[in-house]
Every structure is written in structure tokens, then in C-alpha cells.
């Protein structure tokens, strides 16, 4: 009996302890951290390595910090994906099946949209923009006329047309760290996307349900500020991969001004939200200085494109 007991499988407690050790492994540093961008000072003590805030109407720069740095942008990529899908005027009621090709092999991220799930193009676009659903975004690109290669080519072409020289895309989800841009370019994209009523509606939708087989799945917005009565958000998108850190872009009305905010490479999940709150409080409490168009935080810089 002693011999057989020595060959027993590890207890559940041991397995759990090992799993905790694996889970506790520190994430890889972001490209912004490795480039030393986090050391740049700013008057608002922002947690994001990169920040850029402009008045949408006057184009006054209210705050800038490393706004020229070219970094991975994670799921902010999906905003360009949404622009192309919307402007293509493809039938939104056309049914699309999630395939094995849509499964993430880059990061191994999970999804509740299992292979074989059938949803309309409109439903997939809603999930991609609101809850940052990766398989939904990839399926939209894969089923675009000409396929995924053509779609990515059009993403880059559109970036060029909009005047986004620091931007490049290799796929439609943002899972690849080779999808890169600058805060200044992203502000240009937010301004452009804001003109599309459908993109405004889908990105700011608090929640959405889809029927998958006999089940109804509830998806929620990745940006909790859309549910806050203190915020008037016209368009937004979040993003995260370890190489990019936590990212956020928004168009929001603050003290009667339409602002475009970009935050890249924030350290914690709530830090990007905290930075948006800091900017909001600053704008609300400094109307006189802002009316003169004087930036408060002027730490600016650039880094070479990351490979």
C-alpha cells in the first residue's frame, strides 16, 4: 500500500499552489516601459506613458506627453476595423460563421464565440467595438471582399488617407504588437470615426445580448465610463496587450468643450480611467487657462517604431 500511495497524483492543494505561481508570473514589460517613456514628467501625474488631449472643434492641444511615440495599440485597432466595415456598406444582416481561422493563435485569448457560432455582420461589429471581441473583429476582416489580406491593406491605405504617418496594421484585432500608432495619429482617427453615427452608437453601447444557439449571451462595454452619468462620451475604445499596456481613446464633452483624449501604455486596468478623470477635473477647474490654449503638460517625445 505504501508503494502505491507514493505514485498517487499530486493533491489538489499542490496543483492549486503551482497554478498560483504560474499566474503570479510578472507580465512582460510594455514597449513604452522599455523605451523609458514612463519617466517623462507631467503636471497631472498621469499613470499613462503617453497622453494627448485636444479640443475637437478648435484643434487646440490642451495636453501632450510623448504624443509622437510609436507604440503597439492593442484593440484600439478595432476602431479602424469598424471604420472600414461601416464605410463598405456591406449588408449588416448577412450571417457570418466564426471559423477556426478566427481563433487567436497570437496570444491564446479566450472567447465565448465558439467555432461554428453564427451571427450577423452587424452583431459582430457591435461586439468588436463595444466589448472588444477578437474573434468578431477577425471574422469581419476575413469575410470582407478580397479576404483578410485585402482588408489589412485597406486599413493601412485608410490610415494614409487620413494623414496618420506613424500608423501601421498587420491584422484587424490588435492582438499583434506590430499594429502600431502614435497618440497624435489616434486622435486623428477618433475625430474621423466620430463623424459616423453608427460607430458612435456601437462604441458607447453599455451592453448587448446575442443569441448563440439556445443560449443568450450578455456582453458589456469594456469602458465603464459609458455608464457614468458624470460623463458625456461620444465615442470610445479600449485596448490591452502586454506590449501596449492599458490604452484608451475617447471623444467626450467636458465643460461644454468637445475633447479627444488618448492614453497609451497605462500601468493598471483602472489607471487609464483614472487619467481620464484627472483630465476631466483639470478641464473643469481651469476654464480660464484652457481658453488661452496653453498646454499644461508638455512632456513630449518620440521613439523609433518598435519591431
CATH superfamily: DD-peptidase/beta-lactamase superfamily
The portion of residues forming beta strands comes to 15-25%
The total domain count is 1
- The CATH topology is Beta-lactamase
Describe this structure as you would to a colleague.
The chain has a single domain (30-291), classed as Beta-lactamase (3-Layer(aba) Sandwich), CATH 3.40.710. β10 (245-254) and β11 (257-266) form a beta hairpin. With 307 residues, the protein is of the alpha+beta class. It has a 5-stranded antiparallel beta sheet with strand order 2-1-11-10-9, sandwiched between helices. It has a two-stranded antiparallel ribbon with strand order 3-6. The protein has helices at 2-5, 12-23, 31-34, 77-88, 121-130, 134-142, 147-162, 183-193, 197-203, 271-285, 287-291; strands at 48-55, 61-65, 71-72, 95-97, 118-120, 180-181, 207-212, 215-220, 233-241, 245-254, 257-266. 44% of the residues are buried.
